[in-house]
């Protein structure tokens, strides 16, 4: 059972990190080669983050088939921890209050995705 939950969590993380990397490349190219400014792209990046964490939690919950809130929570926490470590160790900056609230929203999106994933694709033991 623990191995199944870790595998489900790994699927969620792989989706989240690969999609965030791909969308970051696309947004960087849009920023460089179009007339979009940083303010307009920051709202798009925020929306992409919420949607990606929701889908990552959904995938992890669907694969785990149980404890969707926990799998979704760990999916969101893993992403936030990775982001914090890159920012803190690479740039010597911690999270600001705004970033903390954003990552709390990411965590909630992943939890909701995990719960919905379990309820749609979970095992039916009736």
From TrEMBL:
Record keywords: Transmembrane helix included?
yes
Supply the Pfam families for this chain: DUF3792
Q: Which UniProt key words apply to this protein?
A: Membrane, Transmembrane, Transmembrane helix
Name the source's superkingdom.
Bacteria
The record's annotation in InterPro entries points to:
DUF3792_TM
Q: Which residues cross the membrane?
A: 12-35, 41-62, 69-91, 103-122
* Identification of the protein by name: TIGR04086 family membrane protein
